[in-house]
Fold this protein.
Amino acid sequence: MRHLDIAVIGGGLLGSAFAYGLSVDGGCVGLIDEGDHAIRTARGNFGLVWVQGKGLSMPDYARWSLRSAYAWTPFSEQLHAQTGISVEYHRPGGFYVSLDEQEFADNLALLKQLRNEAGEDGYDYEIVERSALREQLPEIGPAVPGATYCPHDGHANPLKLLRALQEGFQLNGGVYTPRAKVTRIAPVTAGGFEIHCDGGHRFGCDKLVIAAGHGSVELGHHLGMEIPIFPVQGQVVVTERAQMTMAYPTNYVRQTDDGNYLLGPSARDVGFNDETETTTLRDITRRCTTAFPHLKHLRVQRTWAALRIMTPDGFPVYLQSEAYPEAFSFSCHSGVTLAAVHATDVSRWVLDGQIPSRYRCFHPERFNVPA
Amino acid sequence: MFRRRDRVSDPVTIWFCDRAIEAVADDSVAAALLAAGISCFGRTPVSAAPRAPFCMIGNCFDCLVEIDGETNLQACLVTVRDGMRIRPHSGSRLGDSEGRT
Amino acid sequence: MPENVVIDVVVVGAGPAGMTAASCLAQSGVRVLVLDEHTAPGGQVYRSVEKVTDKRSADLNVLGSHYRNGSKLVERLHSSGAQYWPGTSVWEISAAGEPTLAVGVVRDGRVRLIQAGHIILATGAMERPTPFPGWTLPGVMTVGAAQTLLKSSGLVPDGRIAVAGSGPLLYLYVSQLIKAGKKPQVILDTRPRASLQAKLSVLAALTVDPASMFRGLGWMREVRREVRVRERVHRLRAGGVEKLSSISYESCDRQFTDDVDLLLVHDGVIPNTWLAMSAGCRHHWHVQQRCWVPTITGAGQTSRQSVSVVGDAAGIMGADASVLHGEAVASEVIACLEGKQQNSAGNAAHPLLVRQQRLLRRCLDQFYPPAQEFELPPDDETIVCRCEEVTAGQIRQVATLGCVGPNQGKAFTRCGMGPCMGRKCGVTVSRLIAEHHGLGMDEVGHYRIRPPVKPITVAQLAELEIDTDAHTA
């Protein structure tokens, strides 16, 4: 049985960020991961590092997202310096494009309310009417009435991020164990935990971070933690590469550094079904070509469906086991936006052994769920 | 690379870039271009490397071309028509005469 | 074609298996629609058989007597009452969770979904990927590609030609080429010394199917008489600037370099599983044939209800066995549509013939094993993913990082993200990862294939009309 100072369960966007962050100072850190054919939500991420529109009724979440957006620059630079991998982070600001007047009005109302709630801490945004929008997004479609712009928004390549985190983690001495699905977590009387996996892997650890996406629900039960998350399916359409023309990410469409466009978003309640569905794909392309007609002639390179980790209010669920305070669990759907604070702040919480009280807002007790 | 066994009967004229090519009425575009000695059907997006048909049965996608303004067509699956205008597939669409960087 | 016709069965592919299954079904009164991406029926083995028979009968002598069998199958299809849509690509089969079974097609630039009660995938075979340094150069093609050019357009290679690899198709094609008046400079046989097992299997196959064996051995003998053959070829490399101009290789401990204008490669065929995989049908690794095959119960029933596979797409069996299989799968589907339990006796058509074909196939698999160096390219610089230009070295690197499957490998390297969706790299990537980690191929698995399996544009998808009734209008 292998002994670890800290075990992180789950090799997706959250688990990899924690493993990386902890591997700097955390002694012997192990990342325990399932195999190639597990749910793997991270592979379907759109790649936005997004602030605007977030945190309705929870200004703390807006602040948290903004904090992460600021932390993203040094985070990506550090990853690049250490691994040589650019995660293609760009923060030119982002546009929330509306496809009709109603959507535009709704978005403006939302942002106004967010500003009222946030008060002094509110983030910047600008209303951009059609005529001005054309200067920043020349391909914007004729039906679009306008957009809102937030200078804190950006995007990155989620798959490169995953790889960079993995490489950085291993360069720091972290131990990665794939094909190890955790079947049982047993607290040890003297302290720490034993982790049993299929395939015969066993680990002992002093501290534990459960960041296993949907798998966290069942794993949390081993330690008396209720993690109220459920799947919401999202689909993405990816085009062939094209000449770089879109300088800003938007809520519907972004262009990657390789030139591909990603078209989204969508949300379906279909349980753990990760198959694409034709009318959803069609509707995505209809919305996105209303926003950007020039996409019409591009080939659809592939489509994807992934199962977001959604909480009842859409905000993260961060908790520490009451019975076993050395065990933590973190879940959210914004794995890219929050990757920076996950690798820095949250990893620090784990090392310090305590989630700071000001982040109690993310505890699932807010849903009247016992911890 | 290839030559015809028989004389061209039922000739049609197609265009590859600015070059007129004599083809047979039911040739695939790929066959017609190969018979005319074309060895570069397009370039890859990563390194702008030249590509030509590899499998001829619609599986390699190295024969992608643009025909009469329509892109991403597999030349091995499209039949020639008189007057057809074919352009090489650029690895990076919408653009870029120097190839993708 | 009448409008508003309800379709009971969609058959994808018009090769010998697809044509036979469709004909049997249609002749039994089932409403069948055959979707074929080519412009005329025949698949690959009987490619352009109608045209060649009608307009280029001189080529029939070149192509050989077996090719002519295709005409009968085509005639049967045309007179069976099955609808036939040529020039139609299938880009999607609707997911298992969706209420109706539907096929997404592209036809005349328009995209639509066609509903059906049952789908039969007769997508045939494709050549096994053969990565080696320089294989992406213009001037390097598969033997099958050259044969297609011969069949469909009467083209023969010009200039100095080398042919590399192994397998019956290689020898068939070269014998056809010789009849057409053109000889390659050299054949590079990549097989190792024949094992005792392989030699014994030849004897076994001779006893069960002497006709096929003599035909095949005949091609080999003829070709080896006329063309120089280098044996036990290793370290094949293609070189050139902008296109192929030379090759180098080792044979029997000697190093060779040849100037060539065209290099044709062939290392056997494997099932074309992309559509079946995108439909969620379970596949497993066929150890003997070294390829993915759909997991089948009965004659052709996949793990997905209402989806069958037939012919080479179900496992390499060759043209003659594909016809038999087409009949068996058609019977099975008819029983399925009628809600009957499949009568296993009626299903096991011609058991002696099936056994014969299996023995012949096993012999061919043993006599023509895939080249080790194509399966696991030794040079790290070898491009594995042609579309994204990812090398064997890069795959090995991410395997070392901990990638235990091709999907993680894809996420980390972009390998498999190009237009071919992993058709040319998938098997190699899985093999490299399996070899690195000491895992079996079923443990490593294959790419997750998503629609569109054939190219469609954003506009086509946006304009998609979905038939709400089971019509083809």
